[in-house]
Amino acid sequence: MSTTANTSQGVQLKVTISSTPVLIPQCTDYPIPFGQQDFDEITNLDSAGGYKEWFPTLKDGSELAVNFIYNANDTTHQYLQTSFLTVPSPLESFSISLVGTGSHVVSFHGYVAKWEPKVEKGKAVRGSFSIKISGAVAFA
To answer: How much is the pLDDT for 4?
Structure first.
């Protein structure tokens, strides 16, 4: 069987601003959020074999960490920074459009939980931000 792959070039992370999905420009890398399953330990005195037992409870959309090349003049970067600085933080809508996979879109809601531009000698200004996902992640 020959190896197959999809390119990450052209994958787009967007935030919805005034009902319009807007590209968050110059992202360099981030995971596709699937979330995680929480478990409650239910080991009891009747449990056999000396092993813990677990029961699945809630799913957690987790946190999406994004690295990007920062542009202080970019209006979308400014929007995300303002969202982070606003108290209380507003719930935002995000989507990721995948390429090479048909028309797959991952969509979710979340809060800008971290905003961190980074300067380094001899480098372009970069940064990272994270989105604390609230609720389900949808795949279409």
So the answer is: 83
Q: pLDDT digits over 44-92, tens only?
A: 999 999 999 999 999 999 999 999 999 999 999 999 999 999 999 999 9
Selected from 3.30.420, 4.10.410, 1.10.3730, 1.10.3470, the CATH number assigned to the domain covering 12-139 reads: 4.10.410
Facing residues of 69 across strands?
A: 126
Q: Supply the DSSP string of 15-66, one letter for each residue.
A: EEETTEEEE-TTEEE-PPP--EEEEEE---TT--TT---EEEEEEE--EEEE
39-48 core/surface letters (b: 16 or more CB in 10 A; e: else):
eeeeeeeeee
